[in-house]
Every structure is written in C-alpha cells, then in structure tokens.
Design brief:
The chain is of the alpha/beta class. It is built from 17 helices and 17 strands. It binds adenine (ADE).
Length: 421
C-alpha cells in the first residue's frame, strides 16, 4: 500500500500503466472532451470542492480531469470494494489528485476512504450508490450546511435518495444523473449488456451459445444483458416481479417464469434487480451441477451468499473471480466475483464510449448545481429534457453522425391540428 496525506493507493509504481489506459479512454470520450474544451475557458467549477465516490476506472479518471480542468478541486474514493483499477488509481495519485481507493478493500477501509475524501469539506458531492451522501447525512451532518448539492449515478442510489427526499431527510438537493435518457438508455442498456458478459466470460471462458441464461430483472440493465446474451446464442429466461417489465420481456421474445422454476433449468444466472435475496437457498438446492451465478446490480445482496456457504461442503477458487461451491451431492455451483457487480469486479466496467455520455451528464449536472443549486429545494431533481437533447446532439456530432432537420413547412405541420386526411 502506498499512502500519503493526499492519497492511499495499492501501488504507485503502476502509474505509467494506468496513464496509458486513461489516454485510451480519453480518446474514446469525445463529448466530455468537447465540454472540457469549453470549460477550460469558462471555469464553471472554479472554487468548488468535489468529493466523489464512484468506481475508480480509466473512464472515471477522464471525468476527474475534466472536473479539475473546469476549476474544481477533487477528492475521490471508489464506490465498491472490488472495482478500483489500481493502475488508474496510481496514475491519479501521481497526477496530483486526492484519491483513496484500492482493489479488495474491506468494509472498514471502504468507509475510511470515504471519510478521507470528506476532510476537505466539499461543496459538491458525486455518488454512485449513495454511500457518500448517506455518510454525510449520518456521520458528518454538519458538512451538509456548506454542500450546495450532489449528483447520483445509478438506479440503486436514486431509489435510496428519492426515499430520503420523500421522508424529508435530504439535507441538500440531488440531481438524478441516472434518470437522464442519455444515461440509462445507453449506459444501463448497452454498457451493462456488454460489460456484464465481458465479466462473466473473463471469469469463466464459458460458451454462451446454447446455454440457458437466467436474468433476474428486466429493467434497463436486465434488458441490455438479455439482448446481448441472446446475440451470443444463449436461450434467455427472464424473472421479474413487475408485470409491466415482465410483459415487455415476453413481447421482446424472452421466456418469463418464476425464479423457483428457472433455478432448475439455468446454466448461467445473473441478477440485475437492485433487490436483496433474489437467489436464495432453495434456488441453490435445485440448480444443476456446474451452474454459474453472478450479479450485476450495485450491491452484493441480490445473491444470498450465506445460504450458499451454509450448504457447501467445500469451497475453493478455480480461477480469478470464480469460486466453486461443492454442495455435497455431486453438484458444484460457481459464484463469480463474490456476488459483487461482475462487470466491474471481473472486467473493466462499461466501455468508454458509453461512459462518455454518463459522465458528460455528471459534469453538466455539477455545473448546474454550482450555478443554481443554492436556490434548489432539498429534493431529487431530474436532468432537464433540454440537457438530454443537447447532449445527444453533441455525442452524435462528436461521433461524426448527422441527422435531418425539419423544414419550415414541417414545423408548421407539426402544430397544425386542423390537418387530417
Ligand atoms: N460503472 C459502470 N462502468 C463504469 C466505468 N467504466 N467507469 C465508472 N463507472 C462505471
């Protein structure tokens, strides 16, 4: 461990390797680059201190340098004990940023790292899962008075914060970056779809074609994963608790059934629900020999690991992120990445191209809070439709795509309610 007042990272000598990865990500994040070029002149975050709690990846490094280029001071921790890319953390530390993150943190180290980011008394917070903002509210409430606002990256965190807002417990306003169309219709769908398969394949090298792949949850993330798994030749089964989502899955051509039924036929299982105890003891009892179980939701509560452990007669590691649980009845069940989000723990998270839009939204939301947040109520706000549209246009332009424009006649037609057959 390499530690100073300003950072705690696994190994600072990994900085060169991290720098190459960050350069790769930077070259694939053109929307954020365009925002950065503008912000270098206008300095919308001048004087702001941003505490971030979000996976320390090469894409996050590009966000951090963009925030700094816009005038902010930064202090950062990871938002999951198994998602920090140690080489990237080393590069951030060597580049002069405050960063407290390493792969394989225990719970105490995880919260201690968050606490260290709070020492510089942030004016803005950025969360992925709401652990940082929750820490401010429960442990350092006095800091809330000088915090203008916060942002939240993920579905699970937004749920937590909306519940806090509705209970009147939020001490400062939050912008739900997750709920922007330019975030969840892309990051949650295409990012999760690709990176989750990437993690599962890295941990197992299993052939997906012909396998029965059970996906719990058909929200944006589950849908993206189902699409990609089908594309790889898997027979996809969806489990749901929401009738509307289940119906969408049916009409998208997937088999829908209860987990009790799916447990017995699945070769692979992946949870994407945001809910605890989606796969529990009785499901493990009926799984086939060789079943592979993973989670891509934010927290590691979706698979009941104590239930699995209590049934196992022997547990050993087959390869990185792949543990074998012998069940004492000639069946072995494989748990990937200890039930933590497999796309970040066993792979590198979503690709840069899609994080480009998520992080452009983060950047714009923080700039909005810096400019207007003092006038906001202590509730959860959505990203404006205007920001969504502008960002989509920026991304298309940056990627070299052009689209048609309405003519004057078409604009008149669109508002002419007298025009029929
Ligand atoms: N969440 C999912 N993928 C990510 C990535 N590449 N960087 C940061 N957060 C992520």
């Amino acid at each position: 461990m390499d530690t100073s007042e300003r950072y705690s990272v696994a190994d600072i000598s990994l900085a060169d390797a991290g720098g190459l990865k960050v350069a790769w990500a930077r070259s694939r994040m053109p929307a954020l680059a365009a925002l950065r070029a503008e912000a270098e002149d206008t300095q919308p975050l001048a004087g702001q201190r941003v505490a971030g709690c979000l996976h320390v990846t090469k894409e996050t490094a590009v966000l951090i340098e963009t925030l700094a280029a816009a005038g902010a001071e930064i202090s950062w921790s990871g938002c999951n004990p198994l998602s920090t890319q140690d080489d990237v953390a080393a590069w951030l530390a060597r580049s002069g940023y405050s960063v407290y993150a390493w792969y394989g943190q225990n719970s105490e180290e995880f919260y201690d790292s968050i606490d260290r980011t709070l020492e510089f008394k942030p004016t803005l917070t950025l969360d992925d899962g709401a652990d940082l903002i929750y820490r401010v509210h429960t442990t350092y409430p006095e800091l809330a008075d000088s915090i203008i606002g916060g942002t939240e990256e993920t579905t699970t965190g937004v749920h937590r914060l909306r519940a806090m807002g509705e209970a009147g417990e939020l001490r400062y306003p939050v912008i739900a970056v997750n709920d922007a169309s330019t975030k969840w219709d892309f990051d949650n769908v295409h990012g999760t779809g690709q990176s989750t398969l990437d993690g599962i394949i890295r941990a197992t090298s299993v052939l997906l074609a012909g396998k029965t792949f059970v996906i719990a949850g058909y929200g944006h993330c589950g849908r993206g994963l189902a699409m990609r798994a089908r594309g790889m030749g898997a027979n996809v089964v969806v489990t749901e608790i929401d009738p509307l989502a289940a119906l969408k899955a049916v009409m998208d051509g997937f088999r829908v059934m209860k987990m009790d039924e799916a447990a017995a036929i699945g070769d692979l299982f992946c949870t994407a629900t945001g809910m605890k105890d989606v796969i529990v003891g009785r499901h493990f009892d009926s799984m086939k020999n060789g079943a592979i179980v993973a989670n891509t939701g934010h927290y590691d509560c979706e698979i009941n690991i104590p239930d699995l452990e209590s049934r196992a007669t022997n547990v050993y590691t087959i390869r990185e992120d792949n543990e074998a649980f012998e069940m004492g009845d000639n069946r072995t069940i494989h748990l990937l990445a200890r039930g933590r989000l497999v796309n970040l723990a066993a792979a590198e998270g979503h690709p840069s191209e899609v994080m480009d839009m998520s992080f452009a939204n983060q950047f714009l939301a923080l700039c909005t809070l810096a400019a207007e947040g003092l006038g906001y109520d202590n509730i959860v706000y959505d990203i404006s439709a205007e920001q969504d549209r502008d960002l989509a246009a920026l991304k298309l332009k940056a990627e070299g795509f052009s689209i048609d424009e309405l003519t004057a006649k078409q604009i008149a037609y669109a508002s002419d309610y007298s025009a029929g057959t």
